[in-house]
Each structure stands twice: as structure tokens, then as C-alpha cells.
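Marked as duplicate of an earlier ticket. Keeping the data here for the record.
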Amino acid sequence: MLKGIDVSYWQQSTPLWAAPDFVIARAGYGTTVDPMCDIHYQAAKRAGKLRGVYWYGEPNAAGSDAIQEADSFVDAIQGYLGEATLWLDFEAQLNGIWGQQAKERDWVKTFIQRVHSRTNVWAGLYVQGSAAARVYPAVAESSPLWLANWGRLDANGKQVTDLYPEAIAQGFPAYPWPLTIWQFTSEYEEVSLDANLFNGDTQAWHKLALGDRSSSGGNQPPAPLPPSTSPEPAPAGTYVVIPGDNLSTIAAKHGVTLAQLKAWNPALFDAAHNGGNLIHAGERVHVGTNNDPGTPTSRVHVVAPGDNLSAIAAKYGTTWPVLAQLNGLSKPDLIHPGQIIKLP
């Protein structure tokens, strides 16, 4: 069993004194990189500690940004892959879909599958004990569980600050799934600091960092996920929805308007689809008809993580001042992933 801490921007120095074995640093949140991540990571590496990184999920109210956030995570941790265990932190704060089970499970699964598709590592899921049964089953076959359970309170309802020996003696909480990490306190040594136990040894940690959870948390190798099958090729004028899509981005990709999509796809704007605000991966969207094939009305670029206006302009043979004027950008140096940039 290993003992360690998780840290973020709120720790302005790395409290290695509280981390006998490992440090897990927050890589970022939403689509923003945590500026303290690499400082914590390199401090832990110099000290010979095992390392992990996590991403604090901030789903929007539509639950449509899982791929965008997963890409931000993977882009931020390129230098740590193969060394660090990977985790998604899914909590209530700044979570636009909290408590909506179907959306939560879809978002978490989409995020973790996206990370796996880019890294070949199944990220684990951090979640509080009261929400684990609601969220974790979506990824239980692929992902290890990091559980926050601060169950010990004193007579005044204040959290008891357990130290590592006390937590080990108490034992991991009983849950329907094996726990890989147990976060047993958020006030280690009576300071604001999360302390954790890892249910495995150093070899298990390294295997987890490489995508193998067979010796962590007492688990046997997880049952493999069903092999993904490629959908049949869509007919001309048809688009197959992928996780993270919404109708606005689909319209932008094809240079058509949302009104045109509505005219061609009335079923996608019914009550079951929340008036067009809820679509599902695998659904097919008509982007034109025989009479009106949806010839693009304009060219657009959907901003990806790492994009800037100068690079976009160079890609399409124009200049950033032209793009800024065309798109009414008062701050050309401030664009966001998912933003639609009109092209001349």
C-alpha cells in the first residue's frame, strides 16, 4: 500500500513532507492548464516520488464538451505520459450536469474514451462516495476508481484528521467496486491538504501509468470493452454524430445554417431531443437534400486547443487582421476551443 497527496494551484509549494510515496498534480480544469502542475510534477520527480496527474471536469449544461476537455487534458500532459497515472476529477462544483445521471455517465465515458484513444491509457475516475454509484458504473469496466470518503467526524461534526497509520488501520471503505485510491481526508495534519492511500505497490502504479490496471486495487484484469465497430459509411449529404458534437458545430463544419439543419432534420428538434439541444453519438444528420445539397454558404474553422488566430490565418492563406475584422474580434489574442471562425 502506498501513501501520498494530491495538489493543485492552491498549494504554492509542493508539500513533499506529506507524500511518502506519490504526488498527483492537477493538470488543469475545464480547458485551462493549472500553472502549478509542472512545478509540482517536477518537484515530485526530483524527490523520487511516483506521480499522477488529474483533470478537473467542468461540463457545460448541455454536457457537450467532454471531448474538448479531454483534448485539453491530453495536450497538457504530453511530457508525463508513461510515467504518470491519469485521472478525471468529477465533482459538483462548476459542473453543469451534476445530478443528471444520464448526462453525467455519457460525459464521463466520452471523456475517458477520448483520453484512451489518444494515449492508450484508461484514465481513472475520482468521485465522492455519495455519487459513485450514480456515475462510476459508466466506466467501471475500463477505469480504476479513486474515491473521496472522509467518513470520520467528531462530536461536533468536524472532520477527523486521520494520519496514514490510522487510515491504514481503519481499512478501505466497503463499496461495490474495488478501490484503487482512497482519499481519506482533505485536512491532513490539520492543513488544507488531501491525503490518499493507493491499494497496490510501486509496480502496480507503473503498470497503471502504462494502461494496465491488473494489479491495482485488488482487481483482476477488467473485462474488455466491446470492440468498436465503424458505422456504415453515411450516404452523401449525411453526417454521423460523434461524442461532443452539437447541431451548431455540425452546421459550422458543413458551412450551413442551423435553420437549414432544422428544415432537413425535423426529428432532431423534437421533445426527445430537447428541441435540438440533445443529440447522441451515432445519430445521422442530413446536411443537404437532393434539391438543396447544402452547398456551404461560408467557410469556417472550429478552434482546436492550441490554436491562435495567426496560425489559423496562415493555414488558410490569409492574415490575422482579416480574420479579426471578419469575425468582429476585439481581442484577437483571445479565442477559445470550439469557437467558430469565419474564413474569407
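See parent ticket for discussion. The two ends are 59 Å apart (CA to CA).
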